[in-house]
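Annual report, structural modelling task.

Input specification for the adenosine-5'-diphosphate complex:
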Amino acid sequence: MATKKKTKKMKKMKKNVYFFGGGKADGKAEMKNLLGGKGANLAEMAGHPNLRIPVPPGFTITTDVCTYFYKHNGKYPSGLQDSVNAAMKKVESLMGKKFGDPKNPLLVSVRSGARQSMPGMMETVLNVGLTEKTVKGIIEKTGNPRFAYDAYRRLITMYSDVVMEKAAGIEPAEGKGIRRQLEEILEKKKEQRGVKLDTELDADDLKDVCQKYKKKVKQVLKKSFPDDAYKQLWGGIGAVFSSWKGKRAISYRRIENIPDEWGTAVNVQTMVFGNMGENSATGVAFTRNPGNGDNKFYGEYLINAQGEDVVAGIRTPAPINKNSQSDHNKNLKMLSQVMPKIYKQLDGIQRRLEKHYHDMQDIEFTIEDGELYLLQTRVGKRNGPAAVKMAVDMVKERLISKKAAVNRVKPEQLDELLHPIIDPDAEKLNKVIAKGLPAGPGGASGMIVLDADTAVEWAKKGKKVILVREETNPEDVEGMRAAQAILTARGGMTSHAALVARGWGKCCVVGCDGLDVDYSKKKVKTGGMTLKQGDWITLNGSKGLVYKGVLPMMDATRENVILNRFLKMCDGIKKIKIRTNADTPEDARKARDFGAEGIGLFRMEHMFYGEGAEKPLFKLRKMILSEGEKERKQALKELYPYVKKDIKGTLAAMQGYPVTIRLLDPPLHEFVPHQQDQLKTLAKSLKVRMPDLEKRISVLKESNPMMGHRGVRLGVTYPEITEMSVRAILEATAELVKEKKKVFSEIMIPVVGADTELWDQKEVVDRVLKEVLKKYKLKSLPIMVGTMIEIPRAALTADKISRVAEFFSFGTNDLTQMGFGFSRDDIGGFLPAYLDKKILPQDPFQTIDQDGIGQLIKYGIERGRKTRPGLKVGICGEHGGDPKSIEFCYLAGMDYVSCSPFRVPIARLAAAQAADCK
Ligand code: ADP
Ligand code: MG
Ligand code: MG
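The model returned the following structure:
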């Protein structure tokens, strides 16, 4: 009983209100969870001995109170009122004013502030405490009636909007909100007076506006604007808590993945006034330029204004200094000119803040009658190029460690540096004509082309084209490659178009619902606008936007020196190797430039697609459609030189870095031609009649080719295919050895489910190896033989498989496909619903499903290394370029991840960030 009483009492004593001001503070920066970001930093600025920055005194009501508020139907914990009153007393005695006092009134702001900043998503009410009586007190005290009524009309606007309408759950018709209706009154007044700016209205004008405002509020909301300071205060507090569950806040949290449980704090803070006249101002600033990362103080301000005005864009803000000048504001006076002393003080404060927080800060300041105050500081948001520049600079300045620097840049932010982008200024001035999903980053302009062949044809003539399709399929690949960018009406982030574009780092927008593609009329309709083939459009693939015409591009890679320095820093920290998936010598070289440390997947069949593929493809088709071993062997012999040449080129380009070469993987039927003329040529070459050829083709047809005659199964049934491929790899390797070039080849056998399949193929490899060694008079070759783990059974029997396999490469695309039983080409029908209903937390083809497929991987690695300690393990699926999956792979003990060339820099960063996790 006694203890129960005690805990009850302790609960009651739990501190709900934290004071700051007068050089002291109850809280500090580390208490963000309890005080919210704004409150914690206000406390830090006010109370930390290294800072002691002028902050108007006030107090923070904790996020715990917010949680309580929602658990108890909008009630507050007992004792809160007393705590608030006590804190208010402290503020009053510091300021020598009293809240609600008609003679010498204190005014406060009531501000929201969550753990993580949610800019503009929640509410703030300024000038709380102004009533019919106190407004007179203010006038007497300041001798400035214009200012008093300006503050009053702002309070009525904010309060009626935030407290009386939004928090009360009143949903006005579009454009009929109380704020809008009050603003109309103000507009009318300005019109009447023949002025343009709020600041040009005088005291009488504003006094009249206030009266009209109050009438309007009563008339529209059926309630009077409260004429009592404490009523306003509690109204404001409740409204801020309610704004946590406001529409905007909820959708912002969903996008940013902020948990609903966090809640917001409420900050009650003494008002300081930037709207007291020409000697007053308000502004926002960044300790470095958030647009390009330059280490230069940057900001904007407005004379005679209150906080909200700068962001609201009512007047064009002026630059605080030379660094902040732009075409828009260069004719306005700088703060450094107008108030040089204050500017100097502000500059000193911003330096101190950055040094203290070790990061770029975004600050709010107000100057009240020649006196400077700081109202907020937080870590400033920045774009990709700025993030990289700041990270590198801050290491140089010894402000942060390399490790910290690496963690300052989000992997997605690197994307912005690797592709040209649309000039953001131009983008603002143009109308978006269609919206889809951002599938491939950067920007691109081109002429609309509706089919792949035309795309190739036009591109050959030197035209820039954008391939626009309902959706794409593998037959469009040529045209996709030739195009500057790809736009599709259907499909999601894992659609064919998205996947291919991502692999190439090509600009791409998919799933543009409003797009109507008419192939026959060669026209595209969107939002009432009709475009024809040949018309120019511009895509923003980072945001999924489409514009008409050509918009100017900006080279986002101009910071490359800095990017490289940053990535070197990542390399110094990461503990896992980054390889790339590349199928051509050209791709291999590109990947080397991006910093790849090997090729994790070279797909042999790729030499039969695309440019220069006609001849080898013809030989392959001949091989596929031959009858009997003899005919097939002859065709393979003809194919051999092409295969060897391609492999040798890639091995050479990688200069000794390992190259994993996968033997022929897809079902043979995929290579059979569909066009009549091609079939005829083939028949001629094989010396068979067309009906016979057609019969041979029909035999190859399978009802489920994905799980049909492919991969290792081809090698088991036609060992001569394995023999040819392996010989090409080994001879290419041997020749490079003879040429005294560095080389390392890894032969990878795909679609293995049983160790016995591998033993069968290993025999072929060993036999060919002996022959090649003899031919080149060598004792050994720098090679390894391993397998792809992509069938669940392979993962489960990894201990047996690793007896023969010298390395594992997890093919997580197929492993996910077969592990889930999801056909990757058909997920469009259900995956969106799965994600929507949270049946799956994310697309398992983008991020490794750690609970299921991840377990197969972990188990496979563990069992594999049991039989073969030190077994080399990597991943070659799409997941190899996904930051979260990279972290998983590292923790699972892999030696490397492999991703498409363009994602290599991102993978280097993600790997460095993961290094911290173990
Ligand atoms: P947000 O999180 O949307 O920026 P804030 O709580 O920071 O909301 O407040 C909005 C604006 O009002 C800011 O410009 C801020 O500087 C200003 N402001 C807030 N409290 C005060 C105050 N006590 N005195 C003067 N200006 C204030
Ligand atoms: Mg703010
Ligand atoms: Mg596969």
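The two ends are 47 Å apart (CA to CA).
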